[in-house]
Amino acid sequence: MKVVAERTSVVTKKQKTKACITVSDTMKILCDHMLGSLATWLRILGVDTFYPDAEMSDEELLQIATNEHRLVISRDKQLIARGKKRKIPVLELQTTSLDDQLGVVLGSIPIETSQILTRCTLCNTPLLSIEKNEVKGQVPSKVFESQKDFWYCPHCKKYYWMGTHYHNMMQKINMLTKKNDT
Ligand SMILES: [Zn+2]
């Protein structure tokens, strides 16, 4: 998704990391049940983010985090404590504000600008770039006429393009990363 990368002006820096996190360029995340909005945003930012079914137990979450080497992000002190005990990397959040949560996460893990908007926000699958002529009839004709680049989630069969929501999103990301730099 090169086009996206060229249009973004987000500044990424390798941030100082919190004691319990070893940052790698391919940091994978697991958000707990309560952090659905954060999970969606992390996927927008291109971060491989696991978000559990409501029925999943803490035990299952920690198992997945272990097996898939995921950083556990949670507001649940118990879950954080259990993760620490097992030497799973954890990031505890104390705020319910999405902006503040994103601020904390962006301050702890690196975001690759070239990865922004490369992942389906619904299911976490990497998006495929798709030829414009294959999209005809699949998206509103206004969108088809005004957009050049399209992406597709092979799992959800959902099409993506850079509409107005994209520009609002980038504004928010820029704002959050700027706040982080100060
Ligand atoms: Zn999907």
Q: Any low-confidence stretches, pLDDT <50, length ≥5?
A: 1-19
Structure classification: alpha/beta
Overall 3D form:
globular
Strand order of the largest sheet: 2-1-3-4
What is the straight-line distance between the termini?
29 Å
- Range of helix content: 25-40%
Along the chain, the helix and strand elements come as HEHEHEHEHEHEEH
Total E-strand runs: 7
The main β sheet shows up as: 4 strands, parallel
Summarize the structure.
By secondary structure, the protein is of the alpha/beta class. It has helices spanning 2-7, 36-44, 58-68, 77-85, 98-108, 141-146, 164-181; strands at 28-31, 49-50, 70-74, 90-92, 128-130, 150-153, 158-160. Helix 5 (98-108) packs across helix 7.
How would you summarize the topology of this molecule?
Blueprint: H1 2-7, E1 28-31, H2 36-44, E2 49-50, H3 58-68, E3 70-74, H4 77-85, E4 90-92, H5 98-108, E5 128-130, H6 141-146, E6 150-153, E7 158-160, H7 164-181
Parallel strand pairs: 1-2, 1-3, 3-4
Antiparallel strand pairs: 5-6, 6-7
